[in-house]
Design goal:
The chain has 319 residues and is an alpha/beta fold. The protein contains nine helices and nine strands.
Length: 319
């Protein structure tokens, strides 16, 4: 039984094996090549063309139906009101733990959705750019809680998604460098009224504590989502993937002199594994357990991975 199977027995989800989900591809053409897969695959992620055909093509077909239905509602509203208000982007949120492969999922979906004729303009934004700069995190004693909800400029992130969903002609998102482990000052990603915007991040489904009766109701980023995906796996699997990724980065990105984690580049295998386990236990695993995993049941669709990064089951929320 998978990590979410027991919890989904009597919930508003329909569950599919990988083979059952693959049959829902119908005649959706495969538009990616092996070169595309190499470009889109994350570090140590086992993405393959077979996985794209089996899981991501049916998902892109489903999302195409959702976008088409939303565009139809827009035309109906336009006819009813008799105005020419521009349609706003269809927003897809993608959540999940560090090292679970959500960034690969986001990149693959962006590529596939952009190749459907009725929504060719698809933007992908990560919430990393909305982390507070390191100087702010250091001043607040939050460097060891980077990635936790309180380490993000939630107000700025919410304003960004609000502006995009309101149809503003151009909205800027801050850019984050994983090499420098900090915001890139003065650099922005410009979002100009895409057909679809994918927003990917650890805590995009987070709603925080329930406000007290005397407080005004809060608005959350996920309130602006038209569809949401949670990339899931057992915590033990994700920890193994995180350690493996850390060892790979030690041999690659960490060796760059300007890398924030350059100090880890010369660790022995034993030291590197011990360091990765400590970081996972004290930061990433804790964040998963306390903040990320509790949001799983809020997703419209859950992709459940097995020990080899292969998606084994798909859970789709009923309408």
């Amino acid at each position: 039984m998978g990590p979410v199977a027991a919890a989904l027995d009597l919930t508003p989800y329909i569950s599919f094996s990988g083979e059952e989900w693959a049959a829902l591809r119908a005649n959706t053409p495969l538009t990616l090549t092996q070169d595309d897969i190499e470009r889109l695959r994350g570090i140590n992620d086992q993405l393959s063309l077979e996985e794209v055909e089996r899981i991501y093509l049916p998902l892109s077909r489903l999302l195409n139906f959702y976008v088409g239905a939303t565009q139809g509602l827009y035309r109906a509203r336009q006819a009813f009101l008799g105005d020419a208000t521009a349609k706003v982007p269809f927003v897809v949120g993608i959540a999940g733990s560090v090292a679970v492969g959500k960034s690969t999922t986001a990149r693959v979906l962006r590529e596939l959705l952009a190749r459907w004729p009725n929504h060719p303009k698809v933007d992908l934004v990560t919430t990393d750019g909305f982390l507070y700069p390191n100087r702010v995190l250091q001043a607040r004693g939050l460097m060891e809680r980077k990635g936790f909800p309180e380490s993000y400029d939630q107000r700025r992130l919410l304003q960004f998604v609000h502006d995009v969903k309101s149809g503003m002609p151009e909205v800027e998102a801050p850019v984050y460098s994983h090499i420098n482990y900090d915001i890139v000052y003065g650099e922005y990603q410009k979002v100009r009224q895409p057909d679809i915007m994918i927003i990917e991040g650890l805590n995009v489904l987070q709603i925080g504590p329930t406000p007290r009766a005397a407080e005004a109701p809060r608005v959350f980023v996920s309130d602006y989502f038209d569809f949401s995906v949670y990339v899931d796996a057992k915590a033990g699997f994700i920890q193994q993937w995180y350690i493996k990724r850390f060892l790979t980065l030690r041999r690659t990105a960490f060796r760059q002199p300007n890398a924030y984690f350059h100090r880890y580049a010369n660790l022995s295998d034993q030291e590197a594994m011990a360091t990765a386990r400590r970081i996972w236990t004290t930061i990433n695993g804790k964040n998963l357990r306390e903040n990320i995993l509790p949001t799983r049941s809020r997703a419209a669709l859950i992709l459940e991975k097995g020990p080899d990064h292969r998606i084994e089951r798909v859970h789709l929320r009923k309408i």
